[in-house]
Hints:
The chain is mainly alpha-helical. It is built from 10 helices and no strands. 81% of the residues lie in helices and 0% in strands.
Amino acid sequence: MVLKVPARFVQILLVIILASIWELLPRAGLVPPIFLPSLSATLIAGYTDFAELSGHLTTTLGEVALALSISCLTGVVAGLLVGISVTARPIILPMASSAYAIPIVILYPIITAWLGVGAESKIIFGGFYGFFPAFLSVAAGVHSIPSAYVLTGRSLGASRLSLAWYVLVPAALPTILGGIRLGGALAIVGVIVGEMLTSSSGLGYYISYNRTMMDTPKVYSGIILVILLTLVFDSFIGFLQWLTERRR
């Protein structure tokens, strides 16, 4: 008889094991604390520095919210338009796929030259970072919709807008959410990278500054917050995907 262990239990157990290893390695002297502080030291540093951390978190949340809005809205709308266009799709999709392979971070100096080193450059960079995966996923999802759906909508006299809203979006919703999930995660990465490179506030700045000061526990506490932020977003979109699949 094979004992079935719930996947959630295994996941929780793995997290506990990894947290225990993290705590024990520096305490046992196997890893210097300057490279890896103990988990307890990291949590204490985050707690004692909570006021400053919360301020940086608020800054990052505002920038991330705007970057997510830009990447997801533009990516979804552009993906829908290109996905339904027989003329534009074979021209734009290969070009977008090639552009996606380019390291987007090399464009950050240009963005800062245009917009300065304020919040605007982080928001635009994060939005641009997350645009391509959202755009490509939505365009591919719309293209994979059976042509019978589109023909039926057109035969009923649906306009392009009605066709997109009532036929294409519901049919491609799982793919759209998948694109938002990936694009949103990269938008968060873009904002954090921008804050690390040129900023005086935000979690990216907090991590970069404390790395310069060799205050490793604070560095790791900032990293934990970034990870939690990404996991919350990913879990929320994953929940929406689950609801969508359940109602199909």
